[in-house]
């Protein structure tokens, strides 16, 4: 009966604006509710294999190249598919699936090295010990990513099973699984030209960043992988690791210009994997300072009309104060990032062992 009532109450968002609460009123709390997700009373339906394939094709079609974006300002618009997909993710897919029995937790068992990924028949320990730096394998194998970074949604590898809430709880409470998950994360970071700097999830350029960023700029299917990785970090207890990665990718795409083709995906997808409104706002304000052409920046707050009384515009002073506050917020974020990039890298195994798992 409870599930039936939930379905009756749930209203699927029908517009980008209904999917995006980033710029809601300042009175809205930026603190996460219990469980770490945005509050929502609705549910999300399970995705069929056919819908999953169609969804992944839609994601690929939504990844425009720079010349496509710059051709006409009229063509720059928010993707409803992306907004709805990330809305459901941030709201934690309520009542997404019935719980499996413990013996069926394939994702956890894979990370405990008890079963191999299917269909390749490869165990996690083999991946962790032999795949690091094998960029050809990481680039052209398309079946491992769903096992390394599981989600509560179906991917293209239908042998990989979706996570459930119960499996997530078991995974998060299993130190061995979380340790291997972090090692898998560093393998993919290295593939992208990025290194993990410390136990707080801060990241910076790796020694191989020039070649890897050039490759990343030209291989846009990897943007889908990054979205999956960010989602999986949030599902498996590393929500705080998402902000530093998205911040670095925005800086490289918009400020340094090393990955210009990524900027749309970073703004349309990566930013919106973050569950805290304040974090999304800070990243978008930072991005808006560097986005070119500025009139094509479509991820900012909705424009509000000012009422005029006796020739004066109400809220003008408040608007100036808000703009100054936003600038300070973006500058504070930038200052923190400069400090992070100056840090020495710790030994990988050493600091993974220090992370409280």
Walk me through what this model shows:
This is Opioid growth factor receptor (OGFr) conserved domain-containing protein. Residues 15-42 have a biased composition (Acidic residues). Residues 101-305 form the Opioid growth factor receptor (OGFr) conserved domain. InterPro entries: OGF_rcpt, OGFr. It holds the Pfam family OGFr_N. Helix 13 packs parallel to helix 15. The chain has 357 residues and is an all-alpha fold. The chain has helices at residues 2-9, 16-19, 49-61, 66-71, 80-90, 106-111, 124-130, 135-140, 145-148, 165-172, 175-192, 209-218, 221-235, 242-256, 263-270, 277-290, 316-341, 348-354; strands spanning 194-196, 203-205, 308-309, 312-313. The protein is 52% helix and 3% strand. The radius of gyration is 21 Å and the shape is globular. The protein has one domain. The strands form 2 sheets. The chain has a two-stranded antiparallel sheet. The chain is built from 18 helices and 4 strands.
């Amino acid at each position: 009966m409870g599930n039936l009532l939930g379905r009756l109450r749930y209203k699927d968002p029908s517009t980008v604006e209904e999917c995006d609460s980033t710029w809601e009123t300042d009175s809205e709390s930026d603190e996460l509710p219990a469980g770490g997700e945005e509050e929502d009373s609705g549910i999300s339906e399970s995705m069929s294999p056919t819908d999953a394939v169609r969804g992944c094709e839609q994601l690929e079609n939504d990844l425009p190249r720079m010349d496509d974006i710059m051709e006409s300002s009229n063509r720059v618009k928010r993707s409803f598919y992306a907004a709805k997909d990330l809305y459901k993710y941030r709201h934690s897919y309520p009542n997404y699936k019935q719980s499996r029995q413990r013996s069926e937790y394939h994702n956890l068992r894979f990370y405990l090295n008890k079963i191999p990924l299917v269909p390749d028949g490869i165990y996690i320990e083999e991946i962790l010990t032999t795949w690091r730096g094998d960029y050809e394998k990481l680039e052209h194998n398309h079946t491992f990513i769903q096992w390394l970074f599981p989600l509560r949604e179906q991917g293209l590898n239908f042998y990989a099973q979706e996570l459930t809430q119960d499996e997530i709880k078991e995974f998060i409470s299993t130190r061995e699984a979380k340790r291997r998950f972090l090692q898998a994360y560093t393998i993919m970071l290295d593939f992208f030209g990025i290194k993990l700097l410390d136990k707080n999830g801060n990241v910076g350029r790796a020694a191989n960043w020039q070649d890897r960023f050039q490759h990343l700029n030209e291989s846009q299917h990897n943007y889908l992988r990054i979205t999956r990785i960010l989602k999986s970090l949030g599902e498996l207890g590393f929500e705080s690791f998402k902000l530093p990665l998205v911040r670095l990718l925005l800086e490289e795409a918009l400020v340094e210009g090393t990955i210009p083709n990524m900027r749309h995906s970073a703004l349309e997808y990566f930013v919106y994997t973050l569950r805290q409104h304040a974090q999304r706002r800070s990243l978008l304000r930072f991005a808006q300072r560097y986005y070119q052409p500025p009139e094509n920046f479509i991820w900012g707050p909705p424009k509000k009309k000012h009422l005029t009384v006796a020739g004066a515009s109400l809220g003008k002073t408040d608007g100036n104060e808000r703009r100054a506050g936003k600038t300070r917020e973006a500058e504070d974020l930038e200052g923190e990032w400069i400090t992070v990039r100056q840090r020495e890298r710790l030994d990988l195994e050493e600091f993974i062992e220090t992370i409280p798992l």
